[in-house]
Specification:
The structure is a homodimer.
Chain A: E1 20-24, H1 32-35, H2 40-43, H3 77-88, E2 92-95, H4 109-126, E3 134-139, H5 145-155, E4 161-167, H6 180-189, E5 193-196, H7 217-222, H8 224-237, H9 240-243, E6 249-251, H10 259-273, H11 284-291, E7 292-295, H12 305-314, H13 317-320, E8 321-322, H14 344-359
Helix pairs in contact in A: 4-5, 5-6
Chain lengths: 371, 371
């Protein structure tokens, strides 16, 4: 598993990064900034961005992340740098976008796809152009896979674009061959595909659970890991990981303590039911270890931190786990306190090494071109 | 947590049971046996029992469990005794029914409820009347809660009825107050309520995952634990466990390695979001430890058995876990080989003690009346 920058010099003269934050949400100051990039036919529609209906008890973003001038949290590069990057020594910040993660909740596929393209052009011009620690994601509306494939090929060679992000919520599970043209483009461009939860159970997406729609945000948020399991088992079972061996997936914001259970369950069922998935050439958990990465936030917090370390070992965290804070959202995890004490090699891999390898990042962030 | 028989003598002169199997599926030889118990208006309809559409690679029941006379697996008491109970020394067999676990997939609530009642009368007359190791469950069609409450009060005082079983699949999550009259009756009668998967994503139930309908049985079966999570978080968050402190729930056939993750997630989210669930008076995981039990099958099988023991310790298996084989289904777990070596106290609790306490079973099964 390696990103497309690995063939570049990794800047051996520079020390390797020690902290790569894999989930930073940037936001526009004013939606009109993005509307400017929309095709004319959608300009009047503007940015249709329904927020989730499962209401938090307070804001979804941290009040202390609001810029001094009062813009939305995450909208000021200066505030972000001072408040988070400088505070913790973040070498790379992987931008994952914001409310556009509801793209699959939108009934109109064409509009959703053009909104993705407009957002990505805006992010490239306004954030990746800044350089510094920023690398970014192309948000995708996967219900329009051919258009997304075109976009990935058009925008995906920007030196600071390091992945595609699609919403965790969908109408069809992501293993479905309907989506494969998009996967083909991402593999071709050397870009991993991340999945991020946001609007499960909203708009035209499915109810979040087999039991239907939960009642509270507390329930909805507790179940984040199950949304990831529903998509991952599909990607494995339908043969996406086998068909696209150079394509990786990243699960963002699902926590991680469910992963050992998930890998064991797949392997056990595969032993008995492999006739249903004959294109799998090795146990499902090995596809996961080779081609799937999990970001840490929102990390579980057992009473005994040793339990979390046991989980990290069970899931081979030294290969599979990447730190993420989710800054500036309400439940930001601290790079200092979120994770338990780990063996040195595991800690280095989780805090920076796995992400550096996956995204193919040079040691020196400033060596990456900004356009 | 204690069953309603605990006030009886537990037969101190007898040795305590060493193996209680909490998921044994009995079946009718001929559906007409059950039709005889249906109200006249439904007799012509017969037993409408759609099987699941996610197809296994072979039969759902073990070929070696078929009785000598060729009836369905699970339909012969003699075969079951010889093949499973005598082989492993099963002291108690908790019968959980069979294809009726699709009751919530049926669009007609009234018919589903009467089918549940008819099945339960049949089971009492044909299986519980046999005595021996058999104790049983009242299957419920929870979409008709008042009728189920009536049934639970009518049939629930049979000395060998030890729980209510409802399908894991539903139209509304089980925390919903619509279901509460049934819970009130079960608590009143001292009967735990079990949930068992079968028709998630079929008939009028919801798609099994937030991603929609998976493609294969391999996927459907891998995700069993997520169906349980969707229901359990609802039971906790909507206050069912808090409102009915003497009511217990049992998760059957969901495996268990997801449970530590689930408890940690709820507790973490509860710390931040408890304003949404103000009726919870303690951390959610404590409600689970006090009022929820998990059966073992289909047990996860990590390469390193020590990992499974770590999971059992994380979830306080000495309080929360009960052995189940799922006999005579295709993936029956062996009482001898399914679980890793455990400390003696934990092993005793898992293999028998926790179930004996939950169901209030006397040491001597033959001391329980048969009607």
């Amino acid at each position: 598993m390696s990103g497309r920058h690995t063939e570049q010099s990794t800047g051996a003269a520079e020390a390797a990064p020690t902290l790569i934050d894999c989930d930073i949400h940037q936001k526009w100051r004013d939606p009109e900034e993005v509307v400017a990039y929309l095709p004319d036919q959608y300009k009047d529609r503007g940015v249709q961005s329904p927020s989730i209906l499962y209401d938090n008890v307070a804001e979804f973003s941290r009040r202390d992340a609001v810029p001094d001038d009062g813009g939305p949290a995450g909208s000021s590069i200066e505030k972000m740098k001072e408040h988070h990057f400088d505070e913790f020594g973040v070498d790379y910040a992987v931008l994952t976008g914001n409310s556009y993660l509801n793209l699959t909740a939108l009934p109109n596929r064409d509009y959703a796809a053009e909104l993705a393209v407009a957002n990505n052009k805006w992010a490239i011009d306004n954030w990746l152009a800044e350089g510094g620690p920023f690398v970014g994601s192309l948000l995708a509306a996967p219900q329009k896979p051919e258009r997304m494939a075109e976009m990935i090929r058009e925008l995906g060679d920007h030196p600071r674009v390091v992945q595609v992000v699609m919403p965790m919520a969908s109408q069809l599970p992501y293993g479905h061959e309907y989506y494969w043209p998009m996967y083909e483009a991402a593999e071709e461009m050397g870009l991993p595909i991340a999945m991020h939860p946001y609007t499960e159970g909203h708009g035209v997406t499915r109810p979040p659970t087999g039991a239907g729609h939960p009642n509270t945000y507390f329930e909805w948020h507790t179940l984040l890991g199950t949304y990831a399991m529903g998509q991952l088992v599909s990607l494995v079972a339908e043969g996406v990981l086998a068909k696209f061996p150079d394509l990786s997936f990243v699960v963002i914001e699902g926590g991680l303590s469910w992963v050992p259970h998930f890998m064991w369950r797949m392997d056990k069922d595969w032993k008995a039911l492999r006739a249903q998935v004959p294109y799998l050439q090795k146990p499902p958990s090995e596809y996961v270890r080779d081609q799937v990465r999990f970001t840490t936030q929102p990390i579980e917090e057992p009473d005994d931190p040793e339990h979390l370390l046991q989980i990290l070992k069970m899931m081979h965290a030294e290969e599979t786990v990447m730190f993420a804070s989710d800054y500036p959202h309400w439940d930001t995890d601290s790079p200092l306190y979120a994770l338990p004490p780990m063996p040195e090699e595991m800690e280095q891999a989780v805090m920076a090494g796995n992400a550096q390898e996956l995204y193919g990042l040079p040691n020196d962030p400033t060596s990456l071109p900004t356009n």
